[in-house]
Write a structure and sequence with these properties.
The structure holds two protein chains of two kinds.
Chain A: H1 2-10, H2 12-29, H3 31-34, E1 53-57, E2 61-73, E3 78-88, E4 90-100, E5 104-112, H4 144-180, H5 182-197, H6 200-210, H7 217-247, H8 251-258, H9 263-274, H10 276-299, H11 311-314, H12 322-327, H13 333-356, H14 358-364
Antiparallel strand pairs in A: 1-2, 2-3, 4-5
Chain B: H1 2-21, H2 23-52, H3 57-68, H4 81-91, H5 97-109, H6 124-158, H7 164-178, H8 181-195, H9 212-250, H10 253-260, H11 265-302, H12 308-317, H13 321-349, H14 351-355
The chains are: A alpha+beta, B mainly alpha.
């Protein structure tokens, strides 16, 4: 652990990655509090609205603020700024009501405006406040920043859940294969090879097409995770099998066997802890794969769909069409978050591998 | 029991002789057999899944069949349960899935007919053949460039190990390896659209027959960006691997002995260390080939390249059951062939594989 922290300070990229991940996961945990709205909050007259937060104007001086706009070109969604109509952005304002973590009812949001959107009603009176678009608005006038934060709940957790399922499968099957050898080994490894040989994405597409199209978001999330882990487990199973195979010959395993400890207990209590460091590495390096798998499916419109939101569904093909991207480049912000996450996991995994994996270090000289 | 073992040994004895006499031929035959078995099991699983899951696909299929047959056709497209059951029985959809599977196999191999697409009504063989050629061309070109350039760079940087240049290259490789492929492709297409230097689609808009020469140039122009995309997302991983194996080999005693005998450094790199890096590369290039297919799914969809991946995607979107079936079997077949070829190449390059564990 101490060596890890030391190396972390020496390698600035990994340090930045850790910080980025902490920020991202913090944002995910407090999504409702940090985001100014809910992911379904629609501002009808502000579809495709560009980011509107600025730090300076003659009217208000230096402070975060929002300038009011009016829709001038309805077919191309061009907005004109209205002179002298700046609204200050304030911290901890009242917004739409929500339950933090599904438990604590609140209506405080980290930032927002206090002026009403249309008419005279603010959030407290049942109306809406003028929108703050940190990252612009999507095709229905929903705040992109809010949607990215809410979307991270799926995008950032699917990696962990997926890797948990696939690693459990890999440890059980790979462990059995390595420990028992012989026929068990042969059978399990043939099954694993079978799964490796099938082209992953095509299998996912096929499975997704066989399963019914109209599912609610929870079902879709579970199905996607299971499909992705089914495609992902054989690689780790091979790794686990090889490790178990070599650890099996150690003296302490023989000692345990002679004492009559049942095989399952030996695998989980004696062998698995021995390879925990390598498993940690493969977890870290495996997570981005799951995140990208979900993104690809949702991009193709076969994954998470409205009203649920994930980074993949924000990048959905129909929304991020070429014409949309050229005129509304802020639609790529979810991609930026995706990029930061995958890069961070990879850099961190690379460092972990250097620190934890003795075999790899020898190899890279 | 003992008799049985003896019998098996006696029957298998020619096989053992064969293996001892022609290890390579035996190896190739064994890989071929395992490929056929895997394909068979895959088809079995696909049909099983299709009948086990409560999908809309089979229903859609039945409905589309009913539309075609005049005796069942209803103007309002509403059918009675009995009529649907009747058609299902007639199409053999009420049979257990393994019987359906054998029917399908019979249809494919004996009657040489893959059926017709439900949507476009075109024969599936015709659809797949065109698309498959396109996909193969694209993937082979990109595999070719990827191999050459990553070998060149990997060997070059392994000779510069420890210098700032090498550190920079390693970092770049990791960065490219970690970069989400889908985002890269979207950005490349956006670049094409904004700059206007490249076409935003991956395929010329006129057929080959119309103007062959012009087609070739236009094709080259169209696939530059898709190729760059495939190249950038592949190079990180392969270059890292080649560099790591080169370093691994360079640390071995035989390299020291070569150097001590005064063998030129160039020869040490290119004739000795390099030859040994081929081995892991071929193993992984089979996976690379497979991943190129998977990767080119997204690529084909984004750049609207008429390849087999896009065909599959469209079939899934339109719930075209015949096409999906034929497609997944064909793609698996292609990838398996790629893997078997890689295995055989590996066995030719490295005799240890052939004689030892398979």
């Amino acid at each position: 652990m101490r060596r890890f922290v030391h190396r972390l300070y020496k390698r600035k990229v990994a340090l930045i990655s850790v910080v980025a991940l902490v920020i991202l996961y913090g944002g995910m945990l407090f999504a409702e509090l940090i985001s100014p709205y809910e992911h379904t909050t629609v501002f009808e007259d502000h579809a495709y609205h560009p980011p509107n937060v600025s730090m300076y104007s003659d009217e208000l001086g230096f402070r975060p603020q929002v300038q009011k706009t009016a829709l001038v070109d309805e077919s191309n969604y061009r907005y004109a700024r209205i002179a002298d109509s700046h609204i200050p952005v304030k911290l901890f304002v009242k917004g739409p009501e929500y339950k933090l973590w599904g438990l604590i009812p609140m209506d405080l949001h980290l930032f927002g405006t206090t002026e009403p959107y249309e008419g005279t009603l603010t959030w407290e009176d049942g109306g809406q406040n003028y929108p703050v678009y940190l990252f612009g608005a999507d095709n229905l006038g929903r705040d992109m920043f809010t949607r990215i934060l809410y979307g991270s709940r799926i995008s950032l957790t699917i990696g962990f859940i997926g890797i948990a399922i696939s690693l459990t499968l890999a440890i059980i099957l790979g462990g059995f294969a390595g420990y028992y050898g012989g026929v068990t080994d042969w059978t399990i490894m043939r099954i694993a090879e079978f799964f490796i040989l099938i082209p992953g994405l095509y299998m996912i597409l096929f499975l997704r097409s066989v399963l019914s199209r109209d599912m609610d978001s929870g079902q879709a999330f579970i199905i996607i995770t299971i499909i992705l882990s089914l495609v992902g487990w054989p690689g780790s199973a091979r790794l686990v099998r090889g490790l178990v195979h070599s650890i099996k010959r150690e003296d302490f395993i023989t000692a345990a066997q002679l004492q009559g400890v049942p095989p399952l207990v030996i695998i989980f209590k004696q062998i698995v802890p021995q390879m925990s460091s390598i498993l940690i590495v493969s977890i870290t390096l495996g997570i981005p794969g799951f995140i990208l798998g979900e993104t690809v499916l949702s991009y193709l419109g076969l994954g998470i769909v409205d009203p649920a939101v994930s980074w993949g569904s924000l990048l959905n093909r129909e929304v991020t069409s070429l014409s949309n991207l050229t005129s509304f480049p802020w639609f790529l912000y979810p991609g930026l978050f995706l990029l930061v996450t995958t890069l961070a996991f990879n850099f961190l995994g690379d460092l972990l591998r250097d620190v934890l994996d003795p075999y790899y270090r020898e190899k890279s000289g | 029991m003992r008799h049985l073992v003896e019998l098996i040994q006696r029957v298998g004895r020619p096989l053992y002789y064969f293996k001892a006499k022609h290890p390579l031929a035996h190896f190739i035959a064994a890989r071929g057999v395992s490929m056929v078995v895997i394909l068979f099991v895959l088809g079995f699983a696909v049909f099983g899944l299709m009948s086990l899951t409560p999908g809309d696909m089979v229903d859609n299929y039945v409905r589309s069949q009913m539309l075609m047959q005049s005796e069942f056709r209803q103007s309002d497209n509403v059918y009675s349960e009995e009529a649907i059951e009747e058609v299902k029985t007639r199409l053999g959809l009420n049979l257990p899935f393994y019987e359906q599977y054998f029917q399908w196999l019979h249809q494919v191999f004996v009657e040489r007919d893959l059926g017709r697409s439900l949507i476009s009504r075109a024969p599936i063989l015709f659809l797949i053949r065109d698309r498959m050629v396109n996909s193969l061309i694209l993937n082979l070109i990109s595999l070719f460039f990827l191999t050459i350039i990553s070998f060149g760079l990997g060997i070059y940087f392994s000779s510069k190990v420890g210098t700032p240049l090498d550190i920079g290259a390693t970092f770049t490789a990791l960065f490219l390896h970690a970069f989400p492929g889908i985002l890269l492709l979207i950005l490349l297409q956006l670049f094409a659209a904004v700059s206007g230097l490249f076409p935003i689609t991956g395929y010329p808009d006129f057929p080959f027959r119309e103007a062959p020469t012009r087609f070739v140039f236009s094709y080259a122009h169209h696939i530059i960006l898709p190729l760059i995309g495939a190249f950038l997302s592949g190079i990180g991983g392969t270059m890292r691997m080649i560099r790591a194996t080169m370093l691994d080999q360079l640390g071995r005693p035989y390299i020291t002995s070569l150097r001590s005998r005064g063998v030129p450094e160039r020869r040490v790199y290119l004739a000795h260390a390099f030859r040994n890096t081929l081995n892991p590369f071929i193993t992984s290039s089979a996976n690379l080939f497979a991943s190129l297919f998977s990767g080119s799914l997204i690529l084909e969809i984004i750049f609207s390249y008429p390849g087999i991946g896009r065909l599959m995607y469209e079939a899934v979107r339109q719930e075209d059951i015949n096409l999906v079936l034929a497609n997944i079997m064909f793609i698996s077949f292609l990838i398996l062939v790629g893997m078997v070829v890689a295995d055989i190449l590996l066995a030719m390059v490295d005799p240890r594989i052939r004689y030892g564990r398979q």
